[in-house]
């Protein structure tokens, strides 16, 4: 069994496990949370993260990075239960004045009827990573998300990708994304896990695999919350590259 088939099997196992494992209590809690969200006013969120680290002496090292995200949630004219988001991030690092990391990304997404049974969506990604020789990569996708129960959903999108390394290449990808979201204690704690499997349409042995896990915890101060996140990404193109 090759690796990309193994990932498909893993996704199906995760899907089946969470479908049969949803309790009535979890469903009632999340249904209540969704109804409260619908009844609340339109909301907007801003998040900003900045990092800078410098070491001097025997080692001259600089690392800097930043990330900003903005999202709108609510009803906007004829667009009911809509989510719109934009995020951008970048990183730079050098050792002894020799850059070894320079990468960045931009993402925007529009979800219509985001918390309903079936939700169409659109997203666009732009990425560059000089350390990998990636000049740029553009992703444009249209798809739909299907809610299965109260904590699980699965989505599919047809994604067209244009990337440039030594030459420019344009090709389509499938994008399959199971997602599990638990909302506990009336929204005081949220666990969100999603995994993306993105094989090329013309060659499924070349694929991207991404995992995102977030845990959000509310505090006694209304404007302050704590969030832990973990992200993992794998590109089969570099599977046999020992350096990367």
Could you please describe the fold and organization of this structure?
This is Inverse autotransporter beta-domain domain-containing protein. This protein is mainly β and 244 residues long. It has a single domain (3-238), classed as Porin (Beta Barrel), CATH 2.40.160.40. Helix content is 14%, strand content 62%. The protein has an 11-stranded antiparallel beta sheet with strand order 1-2-3-4-5-6-7-8-9-10-11. Strand 3 (79-95) and strand 4 form a beta hairpin. Residues 18-34 have low confidence and may be disordered.
Main β-sheet: number of strands, strand sense, barrel status? 11 strands, antiparallel
* Count of structural domains: 1
Number of helices: 2
Strand content: over 45%
Instruction: Write down the Rg.
Output: 20 Å
Poorly predicted regions are 18-34
* C-alpha end-to-end distance: 24 Å
Find the count of extended strands (DSSP E, 2+ residues).
Answer: 11
**Classification by helices and strands:** mainly beta
H/E order of the elements? HHEEEEEEEEEEE
List the helices and strands and how they pair.
Layout (H helix, E strand, L loop, with lengths): L2 H18 L3 H16 L3 E13 L5 E16 L2 E17 L2 E14 L6 E12 L4 E15 L3 E13 L3 E17 L4 E11 L7 E12 L6 E11 L9
Antiparallel strand pairs: 1-2, 2-3, 3-4, 4-5, 5-6, 6-7, 7-8, 8-9, 9-10, 10-11
In short:
The protein is mainly β and 244 residues long. It has helices spanning 3-20, 24-39; strands spanning 43-55, 61-76, 79-95, 98-111, 118-129, 134-148, 152-164, 168-184, 189-199, 207-218, 225-235. It has two helices and eleven strands.
